[in-house]
Structures are given as C-alpha cells and as structure tokens.
Amino acid sequence: MDAQFRDTDNTMAFALKRTAASIQGETVTLKELLEVVGEQGLLLFCALLTVPFLLPVSIPGVSTVFGIVIILIGVGVTLNRVPWLPRRLMSRRLLRAQIVPMLDQGARIFERIERWVQPRLLFMTGGAGINRINGLALTASGVLLLFPLSLIPFSNTLPAITILLFIFGLLQRDGYFIVTGYAALVATLLYFGGLALMMIAGGQALLG
C-alpha cells in the first residue's frame, strides 16, 4: 500500500495498458488478470475491477462477481492480511473483445486522475487503526456495488467511483482522495436510501 507509482512505467494507467497487452487468447480469467498485475498487488487489481462501471460498456453479470472480489479485498485490508479469493470466482472467464477496450479506456481515465495524486494528509493512510477503518469503507463500497440495480442510473457507477477514490488514496498515500472517498460513500448511501424510499412509496401507492 505504500508503493509509489510516479515513474511512467509504474503508474496504474501503465499497469492497465500492460494488462490489456498481455491478453492473447479469446478469453481471460480473473486469476490470469491478477497474475499480470503481479507485484503492484491486490489494490490495483481492485481498481481494475471498477473500470466496467465507469464506462458505457456492458459485460453481463460482472457486478456480482466483481463486487464479491472487491469485498474480500476490502476485508483483507481491514484485517491486514492476504484475502481468500474463491477459485470459482477467479475462474470466471471474460471475453478479450470486451476486456481489452475496457482496459484501454480505463487507462486513459487513470492517466487523468494520476496527475492529481500525491502523498498528502498522511495520517489518513498511515497506521493500522486508520487503515482498518479505510478497509471497512472499501468493503462497504463493494457491498453497494454488489446490489443488483444495474438498470438504475448511477447505482453501479457511484460505488465504483467511491472504491477508486479509496484505492488511489491507499496506494499513493493521498489523504485528500481518502477524504473524498468518504464523501462519495456518504453520497452513495444517501442515493441508495433515496431509491429505497421511492420503492417503498411506490409499493404503498400500489397497495393503496
């Protein structure tokens, strides 16, 4: 989590480009993607899993699978240990024709974000206690991403943005991004709460 990615060949955007270039067959598994990410670790892999929800692309059924993996990584951050990732989930196959353009577009997004990231407010990322809290927030964001509400606007995008803010903050030790992540988490909770109230009101109107 303390690794810095200031060199051009060590940025998160470069890692996504490298991952896209490594995919040779017609399909690729999540395990294979994680192996390509390699030394830059689980948090970068977690960032990779948010990309489909930041773009107008459609990869059916990934919100559940990706959400569970993100939750498990968040639990790992909270407990400060390598998380258990189920073999069945990691064996999920994705089409190269879908994943490569997605990673290339995600790399362009990451390049823009990385211009603003630098070590700041280090107390928000330094220390076991605060990292447990950050891990819990990352886990909660993964839970929100897991909800099967993909047909509702922003229901996947808001949790994905929240997750990405936490990951940039943790990887680059940028407390500003961590604080913004908490603000985005609150906004996402309010949005989901508003949706729940609308559904309850709609149900009552139908019953009435």
Task: Write a short abstract of this structure.
Helices cover 66% and strands 3% of the residues.
Q: Give the quaternary arrangement of the chains.
A: single chain
How far is it from the N-terminal to the C-terminal residue, by CA? 53 Å
Strand content: under 5%
Q: How would a crystallographer describe the biggest sheet?
A: 2 strands, antiparallel
Radius of gyration: 17 Å
Number of domains: 1
| Helicity level | 55-70%
What is the residue-mean pLDDT, rounded to a whole number? 86
Q: Return the structural class.
A: mainly alpha
Strand order of the largest sheet: 1-2
The tally of beta strands, per DSSP, is 2
* Low-confidence runs of at least 5 consecutive residues: 1-8
Question: Counting H and I runs of at least 4 residues, what is the number of helices?
Answer: 9
**Which overall shape is indicated by the principal axes computed on the Cα atoms?**
globular
The string of secondary-structure elements, in order, is HEHHHHEHHHH
Q: How would you explain this protein's 3D organization?
A:
With 208 residues, this protein is mainly α. The chain has one domain (8-207). Helix content is 66%, strand content 3%. Helix 7 (128-146) packs parallel to helix 9 (175-207). Mean pLDDT is 86; it is low at 1-8.
How are the SSEs ordered, and which strands pair?
Blueprint: H1 12-22, E1 27-29, H2 30-37, H3 41-50, H4 62-79, H5 87-90, E2 93-95, H6 96-114, H7 128-146, H8 157-172, H9 175-207
Helix pairs in contact: 1-6, 3-4, 3-8, 4-7, 7-8, 7-9, 8-9
What key attributes describe this structure?
208 residues, 9 helices, globular
